[in-house]
Design a protein that fits this description.
alpha+beta, globular
Length: about 140
């Protein structure tokens, strides 16, 4: 696989996925089975304590797991999240740096380890997201 071509194809594909724009994702690194990204802290992402809302951190983890898998499947693969969990370690008061690494690239299931850090490097959460890969394209309008 040509990494440069694949990287550009992945960047083009995720540019078409609305949640990447909504979150303001900045891809920092793409490598085989890895995606590292920055997701800015917006006031609209705050919970009750002016820190990153836990649900938004989980959304960031799920979102960044996707391009990590695409580095193995290619940008046009169809996939869907099957389950996810997260453990919060500390409040996140800054942008979040999300590092997603594929644990195992299986025939149908692909678990991904996701570590989330604040901009000072403090580990704020650890998540695992599992995707089902190799799905058929959904029918239009469904």
């Amino acid at each position: 696989m040509n990494t440069v071509t694949n990287e550009q194809a992945i960047l083009n594909r995720i540019g078409q996925i609305p949640v990447f724009d909504t979150l303001g994702v900045e891809i920092l690194e793409l490598a085989e089975g890895l995606c590292k990204a920055r997701v800015p802290k917006k006031d609209s992402f705050d919970g009750i304590y002016e820190s990153y809302h836990g649900g938004m951190l989980m959304t960031a983890a799920d979102t960044i797991a996707c391009p990590a898998i695409m580095t193995l499947t290619g940008a046009d693969a169809f996939m869907a999240t099957t389950d996810m969990n997260i453990r919060f370690l500390s409040a996140c008061l800054t942008d979040v740096i999300v590092e997603a690494r594929v644990i195992k690239f299986g025939k149908t299931l692909c678990p991904v380890q996701v570590d989330l850090f604040d901009t000072s490097g403090k580990h704020v959460a650890v998540a695992q997201v599992t995707y089902m890969v190799g799905l058929k394209a959904p029918a239009p309008g469904r």
